[in-house]
Design brief:
Elements lengths: L1 E5 L26 H5 L5 E7 L9 H8 L3 E8 L8 H6 L4 E5 L4 H8 L4 H14 L5 E7 L7 H11 L2 E6 L16 H17 L3 H18 L13 E4 L4 E3 L8 E4 L5 H6 L1 H11 L8 H8 L10 H15 L42 H4 L9
Parallel strand pairs: 1-2, 1-7, 2-3, 3-4, 4-5, 5-6
Antiparallel strand pairs: 7-8, 8-9
Helix pairs in contact: 7-8, 8-12
The chain binds iron/sulfur cluster (SF4).
């Protein structure tokens, strides 16, 4: 099972596609070391994210607790405080670190509302490499504003010896956003094709399967059904800063329990989780994020291996690209079916003086996530 620990909703970026920064949590309410110690061993990918996890003063202790419990420990960071990660990487060089990067200097800083963000994170990842980091990379959220730079970011990451993880606009309780829509779905989707071809040309099998993951992103961008059904609550779960456990980070009606008050076994086997898994089986959203896609692509029999569909697609198209042929994307994707969506303008917060507002006295999950509806179709 994969697990994401959303350690805080405090954040020092001001992204246009994620409003966590407008909804910070109080440090004293955030999931404690004692609560995280209750997690069992045996997770596959355990991601410590946020908000911005480096704003937790006890991030090193969090990693000390979760590191032995997972095959892969990951930190998703905006990269604005790389110095806080250096001691962690010196201690655990194989901790996976992904810094958010949304394109070139101007584009990334505008989308993320970060002054000098680009320089800080590019220099910061180099620092982590010097510290001995072995699994470093960038993470990019594909949107109209940066899709033209997608292949360039991939090539830049590759030349520096880094990975590139991609996702795209989603509406989700984790992001406090339910109005993330593409302006030109088809044009954005078409430009992802270039990244898929570039990834298939790579010599790394990891990139070939990322190519398939990006094929799923094209379906998501166009508003089509997911390539593979979702297994939220069974193959992955999320813990929010209030220690509430959720099947996924999208729908706020898929609770499983609370790790501060219950044991992990009670949560997984409880009635609430069982009811939630039934709802997941009927979920008609087409979200396709790294966690939801990666787990869906895994074989049910040998989890280290991919399912037959991605495996066959990768083999066929890797051979095609290797002999210099083009992939016929139209044979996989119905580009004539583009779901209509409202036009909601995104705006940069780079030069805007918007302060985050700490709302005290939020007690129930309904108060934590007031937006209620999050559609991804
Ligand atoms: S498909 Fe449904 S259950 Fe799965 S992650 Fe998306 S909203 Fe959650």
């Amino acid at each position: 099972m994969d697990l994401t620990v959303i350690s805080t909703f405090r954040c020092n970026s001001k992204c246009q596609m994620c409003y966590i920064w407008k909804n910070p949590t109080e440090p004293k309410e955030e999931v404690s070391l004692e609560t995280l110690s209750k997690l069992p061993n045996g997770f596959d990918n355990l991601n410590v994210s946020g908000g911005e996890p480096t704003l937790r003063k006890d991030l090193s202790e969090i990693i000390d607790i979760v590191y032995p419990k997972a095959r892969i420990t990951e930190i998703s960071s905006n990269g604005l405080h790389p110095e806080r990660l250096v001691p962690i990487i010196k201690k655990y060089p194989n901790v996976k670190v992904r810094f958010s990067l949304e394109g070139d200097r101007e584009t990334s800083d505008a989308i993320r509302g970060e002054k000098n963000g680009y320089e800080t994170k590019v220099a910061g990842l180099r620092k982590l490499k010097e510290a001995g980091g072995t699994d470093l990379g960038f993470a990019m959220v594909i949107q109209d504003e940066n899709v033209k730079q997608l292949v360039d970011v991939y090539e830049f990451a590759r030349k520096e010896g880094y990975e590139l993880a991609t996702s795209t606009l989603h509406n989700a309780w984790q992001f406090y956003k339910n109005d993330n829509y593409f302006y030109e779905r088809k044009s954005v989707a078409r430009q992802v094709e270039g990244l898929i071809e570039a990834m298939l040309k790579s010599s790394k099998p990891k990139n070939w399967f990322r190519a398939y993951l990006n094929l799923g992103l094209i379906e998501k961008i166009l508003g089509h059904d997911r390539l593979i059904p979702c297994s939220a609550g069974k193959d992955f779960a999320f813990i929010d800063p209030w220690s509430d456990v959720w099947a996924c980070n999208v729908r706020s009606d898929l609770p499983m329990g609370n790790l501060a008050r219950q044991s992990w076994d009670e949560i997984l086997n409880g009635e609430v989780a069982q009811r939630t898994r039934k709802k997941v089986a009927d979920c008609s959203q087409n979200c396709w994020m790294v966690t939801t896609a990666r787990t869906a692509m895994r074989s049910n029999i040998v989890p280290q291996m991919p399912k037959a569909e991605p495996m066959m697609w990768v083999l066929k198209n890797k051979i095609k690209v290797s002999v210099g042929k083009k992939i016929c994307f139209d044979s996989y994707i119905n580009y004539s079916d583009v779901r209509p969506s409202p036009f909601v303008k995104r705006e940069t917060y780079l030069d805007k003086n918007v302060k985050a507002k700490l709302v005290k006295g939020r007690v129930t999950p309904d108060e934590h996530y007031p937006l209620k509806t999050f559609m991804n179709n």
